[in-house]
Amino acid sequence: MKITDLKTWVVANPPPHFGGRYFIFVKLATDGGTEGIGEVYAATFGPRVIVKMIEDVFARFVIGADPFKIEKLWRNVYGSGYNLRPDVSLMGVLSGLEMACWDIIGKELNKPVCELLGGRVHDKLRSYTYLYPSGADRGNRVYSDPDLAAARAAEYVELGFTAIKFDPAGPYSVYDGRQPSLEDLERSARFVKQIREAVGTRADLLFGTHGQFTAAGALRLARRIEPWEPLWFEEPTPPENPREMARVARRTSIPIATGERLTTKYEFARVLEHQAASILQPALGRVGGLLEAKKIAGMAETHYAQIAPHLYCGPVEGAANIQLSACSPNFLLLESIHTWGGFHAEILKKPVHWQDGYVLPPDAPGLGVELNEQVAEANPYTGNRLHLEMSQEPG
Question: What is the rounded CA–CA span in Å between residue 145 and residue 230?
C-alpha cells in the first residue's frame, strides 16, 4: 500500500468561533482507495502558509510512503532539513499527516486506533469544557464577571459536566511572564470562590492562566485560590522553562497542568524530569501525532503523572484525543468544546457521542469520525489571521 494523494481544507469556524477562527483538515488517499483524515494545529503562520507547508512535507516525505510505517515517516519528517529538534510548525504538519495515516491503518484493519495502540481501557471518558459565554452574553462578560461565570458554571454542571475550566487572570501577552496585579489576584480569587459556591462538590475547578506569570507571581496567585481546591493550575508560567514552572509545583498544593504549547516526547520529558507538572496536556494536532502522544503518556505513567488532552481546535483533533485517552491507563480528563454540538457536529458526518458529562469512544474503525466534505467546502476561510493571537502590549 502506498499513499498517492493529499487534499487540504481551511474551514472557517462560524461565530462564536469556539475552538478557533478556522480548522485545517487533511485527507490522504492510497492506491487501494482507502482514505484517512487528520487535523493540523499550527498557529504560528497564516493558514495559507500552513497549507503550503503541508504540501511541501507531503511532496518530500509522504507521497509513495507506506502509511503503516509510522516510525519511519515520523523520523524522516522530524529530521528534515538537518533539524532533529521540536519545531512547533513542522510538528503541527506532521501531526495531521500522521493522524491521517492512523485513520487509514484502522480502516484497513477494521479496528479503532485505540485498539491498535494497546487496546481500550476506558469505555467512557470524563470530559470538561471551558467556560464559554452564552448567546445572551454579547460582551463576553463571563470572562470578567464572577457572578455571571458562577451562573454559567452551574448551567454546565446541570448538563452533566463534572469539571469546568476558566481563566480570569487577565489577558495574555507576548511579554509574559509578569507579576499579577492586585486587581488580577482579587478577581481570580472571587471567580474561584463564587464558582465553587455555585457548583459545590459536583464539579472540579480547572484554573488556567495561559502562561501569564513569573514563578513568583504564579505562587502569589496560587496562595489566593488554594482554599477552594482547584483540580489543577494550568500553565502558571510560560512554557519555555520547566525549571521555573517546577518552582511553582514545589510550593503549591494545587496540581500543575501543562502541555498545550509543547511538542514531542523531548519537551514533555523535560517537564517530567524537572517535576514541573503532574498533569500533561498534549494537543494531538500539534504534539507530533498519535504514536508520539502515546509515548508521552507512557513516560508520564512512570512518573505517576496523568494526561488530559487539550482541545482548542476542530473535532478531528478531538477524535484523535479520544483515541489516545481510551487506550491510556493514566487518562484523567478530556477537553470538550461544550458538548461537541454546533459546527463541531456539522463538520462531521456523525458527531462525537457526548452523554451526561462523558464522551463515549466510537467503535468505528480508524479515528472513528468522517469529515463532511460538503460542509468543509461550503465554509472556506478566506482571511489570513492567525488561529490565536496574543496581546502585543505588556499586560
Answer: 19
Question: In terms of pTM, does the model score above 0.85?
Answer: yes
Instruction: Quote the CA–CA distance of 339 and 348 in Å, as a whole number.
Output: 14
Picking from 15, 50, 39, 18, the residue whose alpha carbon sits closest to that of residue 385 is 50
**CA terminus-to-terminus distance, the chain:** 53
Beta bridge partners of 125: 359
Other CB atoms within 10 Å distance of the CB of residue 165:
23
Contact 144, 349 (CB under 8 A): no
Q: Identify the pLDDT of residue 281.
A: 98
Distance of CA 142 to the CA centre of its chain: 22
Q: Is pLDDT above 80 for 139? A: no
* Confidence band for 55, pLDDT divided at 50, 70 and 90: very high
Dihedral, 195, 232, 287, 268 alpha carbons, nearest 10: 170
Cell numbers that stand for 17 in this block? 468561533
Active site residues: 210, 310
